[in-house]
Amino acid sequence: MKKVTFAAAIIAVTAIFLGGCKNDQKDYILATGGTSGTYYPFGGAIANIWNTKIDGMNVTAQATGASAENLRLINKGEAEFATVQNDVMDYAFHGKALFDGEVLENITTVGTLYPEVVQIAVSKDSGIKSIADFKGKRISVGDAGSGVEFNAQQIMEGYGLTFNDIKKSNLSFKESAEGIQNGTLDGCFITAGVPNSALQELAFTAGLILIPVSGDEADAICTKYSYYTQTVIPGGTYKGTDSDTPALAIKATLAASSKLDEDTVYSMTKALFENLDELARAHAKGQEVSAASAVTGVSVPFHPGAAKYYREIGLLD
Question: Are 71 and 107 contacting, i.e. CB atoms less than 8 angstroms apart?
């Protein structure tokens, strides 16, 4: 009888111990993007760092419809983290553009990650040398209602133009490149990582010219829309483009729920930025991530846990 009692006691203690371990585990969703895009594998690489560097951490990278959907998932409590575009995040936080009248209050910034460059390509026969030359031209500004369309609107505004000044088309990246190739378009806006496959194909077939955004116009756009940063598309990125091209970029950004506690987000921010070599090995875009650049292009408040880490390493006051 004593043996049975002792065995039962061992089972009970084990159950309590295991139950305690289970309760200590932190299960989170990291919303990303489509499986064929960059956000999904990149998010998986981030999740792997968290899961292997932080005890009791279990983060699952989930395929989604990307930025706008991800921010709504966080706001509704259906995801804790997400990879998003920082301009779309700004729209969501302030209830404008894509989120006109819909304010998402439960989103915060962990840090910006890598640039997604607004690439403005025109045909060699278009005669276009500047955005100021777009008047009367046939220009694709991305899918209707997309972040690209708002990028195009804001950048053209910086040069004194509106969509009424151009013959506007709303086409996908592939369709835009094909339009330039077959002569039905003069130019297009594509917001994406560099290089973009549609522009690579266009460069190899019909050729292209990249239009710069620089000088006073670029400064004014960045001042008005704080989620933009200035960057350069390196010469040679696309066949026939030998010189560097000044450009604007929005940034892929790691967002978090404002409901997460400070210590958890601090430890996750610290683990990510102290293991960037591992991130770079897992995904090429990881080579473009740094703690110093993570505090740039931010217009939505940092999560207190992330801010604590950046203050600790001297990047925030």
Answer: yes
Nearest Cα residue to 245 out of 203, 183, 273: 203
DSSP 8-state code for residue 212:
P
Give the count of beta carbons closer than 10 Å to the beta carbon of residue 239: 15
Peptide bond into 195 cis (omega under 30): yes
8 A C-beta contact, residue 71 and residue 84 = yes
What pLDDT, in 10s, does the model give residues 243-287? 999 999 999 999 999 999 999 999 999 999 999 999 999 999 999
- The 3-class secondary structure across the chain, one letter per residue, is CHHHHHHHHHHHHHHHHHHHHHHHCEEEEEECCCCCCCHHHHHHHHHHHHHHHCCCEEEEEECCCCHHHHHHHHHHCCCCEEEEEHHHHHHHHHCCHHHCCCCCCCEEEEEEEEEEEEEEEECCCCCCCCHHHHCCCEEECCCCCCHHHHHHHHHHHCCCCCHHHCEEECCCHHHHHHHHHHCCCCEEEEEECCCCHHHHHHHHHCCCEECCCCHHHHHHHHHHCCCCEEEEECCCCCCCCCCCEEEEEEEEEEEEECCCCHHHHHHHHHHHHCCHHHHHHHCHHHHHCCHHHHCCCCCCCECHHHHHHHHHCCCCC
Q: Residue type at 57?
A: M
- Residue that the structure tokens 């001042």 belong to: 223
Task: Provide the token pair at 192.
Answer: 């994406």
DSSP 109: E
Q: Work out the pLDDT band at 23, boundaries 50, 70, 90.
A: low
